[in-house]
Amino acid sequence: MSQKFQEIIDSERPVLIDFFATWCQPCKVQSSVLNTVKENIGEGARIIKVDVDQYPALAAQYGVRGVPTLAIFKKGEMLWKESGVHDVNTLTQLLQQYT
Description:
Layout: H1 2-9, E1 15-20, H2 25-41, E2 46-51, H3 56-61, E3 69-74, E4 77-83, H4 88-98
Parallel strand pairs: 1-2
Antiparallel strand pairs: 1-3, 3-4
């Protein structure tokens, strides 16, 4: 996964990573928000979900201590990271500013 993950975040277009857990109720709320963000942003950015229970080393590598944690990468660089549930408008605007 880490090689594939590196290829994804090295992208020219921004990538929003949703670090989540299947047992996490706020993560389910965030997931439905991200579906709307994807509709808003279209091909301008990618949205990828990473299950912290399946990939604990990846979560640790990026300092994920709680779920959901969202991070935006572009050209391999982390541009933004925050824990908690975020709304559609905030995430759409964030992604647009990095496209």
